[in-house]
Specification:
heterodimer; A: mainly alpha; two-stranded antiparallel sheet; 33 helices; B: mainly alpha; Helix Hairpins; 4 helices; CPA3_antiporter_subunitC (chain B); ubiquinone (chain B); transmembrane (chain B)
């Protein structure tokens, strides 16, 4: 069944449309806007539900000339992700009004949250590389606004900037990867299909891979996309932005961590998996994922804040999914898809529970919390389900997907020759899982043990806050009891879409009934975790001591070092090139222009004399005496301007220069230019003299810079000299077609014999109108500068008259030209 | 006519204008601006191919209807004409701005003005 374009478009655009009108909703609904958001999310969820079981591509033309379209591809994997985003989105919106009660800036909050959800649904469904990139960066922008929600809080700003820098930076890697991919795909997907069509590429994975390898682009594209996915999905060593992102309001964290932002990378890795499945893929993603899983599990144990613990655990679980997709076997796809599904449910619930705890106790510190089961019994019950699922304890849902990972690690060596990685992968997976069990138990322990004395006023949460986590916990419970139900409903379809050889396998999960290596691994991981739990505090302390002893081991340290260095260097550079002095700006601009122009000539070999170049033509003997005289007089006048020691002398010599140029125009067969130049020069002379009369002489005082200025002037002059030589030389001989056109059409169409005038007032009259506007604006500005001043005196009035008159005259000079035809 | 001589003149004018642009006296900066725009105009005209001559080459047609002669490039002339007028507006504005700056700050020293920011 093919999907329907109208439905898909409605799902993608509805969140953005409502985001646009959020300020109006806030005005009429106030804090209840969250429920409207929930309705939008539920609407998207329901519409997506109608597409259940459909598969295919629909598209809406966007930039046809570049073959870019709003192309959407619906299959099991896309639907799974889009349904999670909208479903959990609805629960987060439902939770928000109570949690955000009394906060300001709700319009921004809900608008960004809606746009965020829309972008995620967009990524899930988009099949055009350009559209994917667009939505990809939109999620980064929305998350920036959401993480930085508390705009006056420094840590919030820091976290938002960090998330933006890392994820947008990663997006740029993705863009380059996409362009390379499209470059190769152009020949494969064939004419009639856009080179940006990801769905078409996924139809021919083997041909794509062969073509990429032949072009030598397989590893570069894989690496670029991996960097992008790793930044989004917080893989080591780019994981550090995710724990900082807990500065966001808790509903945002729940959304960001469970079903949206960080899953985008995983989703995308699953999406392109069939294209890239190979030994390189296994080594890259399995290693990346397992390293992240282990390191972030360790960091989660070291966390002191409940949200920090959950944030590191998210990164760790993302590592698990990436590792799952990293293994090319069908088990790998099952791990990735099923764990993404399970994690979305339990992690959203856990964050919402963390929000309830923070809301009701006023603290998020692990060591200040405990024994909460007395005050929050319902929450405690919900936490038990989801925390044990997170820990992968049977029979909770996380157990099943983790079992699949263990099986995939064990079986990896059957598919590829991995050398020592063969046993290292299972070992690392078990080692990381021990810590997963540890921090899951630690989170659950918030509700048990003795209640610290500082916690004396724990309120019962309002029912509305409990609804969302309860729904999620109930779903987790259902998956725990009957995992096959979830598999049949949605997971199998996702597995089919991400599998390397689709349709070959039917997925089965359940409690193990006999011994297998994976069962043994689970037993070791859970057993060690439970046994090590009594020593949690000492493990916690020893992990914490490592980054304190060696700061550069933390990725955050590198981020801080690099950004601080860049900021300092930027400030230093600005003080050099942007110091408020005119001459500094002129120096940098002119030097840069000259260097770029000369470098351009050198790079294109333009400076090499062409074949048949006659050096004799450079001797300049063919210059008529009159022109030579006029031009040399102009240069001499220019020299006199430079060396003039009074303003009056300078102005007079400047005028000589201008009049010489005017005479040159006469010699060069340009009578109109000469006329205009004569008028303009006369006016300039008058204005200069009028102004200078009011200004005392100013003599250059510092002579120290003359040499430097002269050097720069010579550089500029030399560049101009070379440019003129090269460009006039490169000009094709004879009349240009455009000049011919104007010459021939001047009389029949313009009705005038002076071609220049006809061009100005007829063919290009809008240009002339623009020019007149410039002159008029200059005249008005001059008037304003002189007249609108409290300290006006007689002389300024005189100048005003001269200016007003001159502006008018220049208009008139145009008119006379027009009339002279 | 020889591109070499033209290039030499344009280069010299650009160099002189640049030197003036870097002065501390604002009035001299305005002169520099004026010289640089003159040089740019000559360069632009040179791009059209300069024909020294008289009646034959001037882009004005002698009469209606007859064969259309080949003249110097009228397009660059139109462009330069516009540039001259705009350059005039710019020079006048820069000059009056300098004058106003002098009235406000009692100095025309660009360095001193920069330090006040």
């Amino acid at each position: 069944m093919p999907p329907e374009l109208s439905v898909v478009l409605a799902v993608v655009t509805a969140p953005f449309a409502v985001a646009g009108v959020t300020p109006l909703l806030i005005r009429s609904l106030g804090e209840k806007t969250g429920y409207a958001g929930a309705a939008v999310a539920a609407f998207c969820f329901a519409l997506l539900g109608t597409q259940y079981g459909s598969e295919g591509t629909v598209e809406l033309a966007w930039i046809p000339s570049l073959e870019v379209a709003l192309r959407f591809y619906v299959d099991g994997w896309a639907l799974l992700f889009a349904l999670l985003a909208s479903g959990i989105g609805a629960l987060v919106f439902l939770y928000s009004p109570a949690y955000m009660h009394g906060e300001s800036g709700l319009a921004r909050y809900y608008a960004a949250l809606l746009a965020f959800m829309g972008s995620i649904i967009g990524i899930a469904l988009a099949a055009d590389l350009i559209a994917i990139f667009l939505f990809w960066e939109l999620t980064s922008l929305c998350s920036f606004v959401l993480i930085g929600f508390h705009t006056d809080d420094a840590s919030s700003q820091y976290a938002a900037r960090m998330a933006m820098l890392v994820t947008v930076g990663g997006g740029l890697f993705v863009l380059v990867g996409f362009l390379l991919l499209a470059f190769v795909a152009g020949d494969i997907v064939g004419p009639g299909t856009s080179a940006f069509d990801l769905a078409a590429m996924l139809d021919r994975p083997d041909e794509m891979q062969t073509a990429l390898r032949e072009a030598g682009l397989f590893v570069p594209v894989l690496g670029l996309l991996a960097v992008g996915a790793a930044t989004k999905s917080a893989q080591v060593p780019l994981h550090f932005w995710l724990p900082n992102a807990m500065a966001a309001p808790t509903p945002v964290s729940a959304f960001l961590h469970s079903a949206t932002m960080v899953k985008v990378g995983v989703y995308f890795v699953g999406r392109v998996r069939p294209l890239f499945a190979s030994l390189e893929w296994v080594v890259l993603f399995a290693t990346l994922g397992l390293a992240t899983m282990t390191i972030c599990a360790l960091l989660a144990v070291a966390a002191t804040d409940i949200k920090e613990l959950l944030a590191y655990s998210t990164a760790s679980h993302l590592g698990l999914m990436i590792a799952g997709f990293g293994f090319t076997s069908i088990l790998g796809a099952e791990t990735g898809v099923f764990h993404l599904f399970n994690h979305a449910l339990f992690k959203a619930a856990l964050f919402l529970i963390a929000g309830i705890i923070a809301h009701e106790t006023g603290t998020r510190r692990l060591d200040e919390l405990g024994g909460l089961r007395h005050d929050l019994p319902v929450t405690a019950f919900l936490t038990a389900i989801v925390a044990l699922s997170m820990g992968g304890i049977p029979p909770f849902s996380g157990f099943y997907s983790k079992e699949l990972l263990f099986e995939a690690t064990v079986e990896a060596s059957h598919h590829h020759d991995l050398g020592p990685l063969d046993w290292l992968y299972p070992a690392v997976a078990v080692f990381g899982s021990i810590f997963t069990v540890l921090y899951s138990l630690r989170f659950l322990a918030l509700f048990f043990g003795r209640q610290p004395d500082s916690l004396d006023h724990v309120h019962r949460p309002p029912v509305i806050l409990l609804v969302s986590p309860a729904v999620l916990a109930a779903l987790t419970a259902v998956v725990s009891i009957d995992p096959e139900l979830a598999v049949r409903a949605i997971v199998q379809a996702g597995v089919d879409a991400t599998a390397v050889d689709p349709g070959a396998h039917e997925m089965h999960v359940g409690l193990p009934t006999s011994y297998s290596p994976a069962v043994g691994m689970s037993a070791v991981a859970i057993g060690s975790g439970v046994l090590a739990y009594p020593f949690y505090d000492s493990i916690h302390r020893s992990i914490r001591s490592i980054p304190r002893a060696v700061p550069p081991i933390g990725a955050n340290w590198w981020y801080d070092a690099i950004t601080e260095r860049l900021t300092d260097d930027g400030a230093w550079l600005a003080s050099r090139v942007h110091n408020g002095l005119l001459r500094t700006y002129a120096t940098w601009t002119l030097t840069a222009t000259c260097v770029l122009a000369l470098a351009g000539f050198v790079a294109t070999d333009a400076a090499v004399p062409p074949v048949g170049f006659d050096p004799a033509s450079l001797t300049g003997l063919d210059v008529p005496i009159a022109a030579a005289l006029v031009l040399s007089l102009a240069v001499v006048a220019g020299l006199a301007v430079v060396t003039a020691d009074s303003h009056v002398a300078g102005i007079l010599t400047l005028s000589i220069l201008g009049f010489m140029i005017a005479i040159f125009y006469i010699l060069a067969s340009a009578p109109d230019l000469a006329l205009t130049q004569l008028v303009v020069e006369t006016l300039v002379l008058v204005i200069f003299l009028l102004v200078v009369e009011e200004i005392p002489e100013y003599y250059e005082v510092s002579l120290g810079r003359v040499a430097r200025d002269a050097a720069l002037s010579v550089l500029v002059g030399a560049t101009a000299f070379i440019t003129v030589l090269l460009t006039t030389d490169a000009r094709p001989a004879g009349e240009s077609a455009i000049a011919r056109y104007y010459t021939e059409h001047a009389v029949p169409e313009g009705g005038g014999q002076n071609i220049v005038n006809v061009i100005l007032v007829d063919f290009r009259s809008f240009d002339t109108l623009g020019e007149l506007v410039v002159i008029a604006v200059a005249a008005i500005s001059i008037l304003t500068l002189i007249v609108m001043r409290s300290r006006g005196d007689e002389s300024s009035v005189a100048i005003e008259d001269a200016e007003g008159g001159s502006a008018n005259e220049s208009h008139e000079s145009h008119e006379t030209r027009g009339e002279s035809e | 006519m020889s591109a070499f001589v033209l290039a030499l003149v344009v280069g010299a004018l650009f160099a002189l204008g640049t030197f003036l642009l870097l002065r501390r006296d604002l009035i001299r900066v305005v002169w520099g601006l004026a010289i640089v725009s003159q040089a740019a105009n000559v360069y632009l005209l040179a791009m059209g191919g300069i024909e020294l001559g008289g009646f034959e080459t001037v882009p004005i047609l002698a009469g209606h209807g007859e064969g259309v002669p080949e003249t110097t490039d009228p397009v660059v002339q139109a462009l330069v004409l516009t540039a001259i007028v705009i350059g005039f507006g710019m020079t006048a504005f820069a000059l009056v701005l300098s004058y106003r700056v002098y009235e406000e700050h009692d100095t025309l020293d660009a360095s001193e003005l920069g330090d006040r920011e």
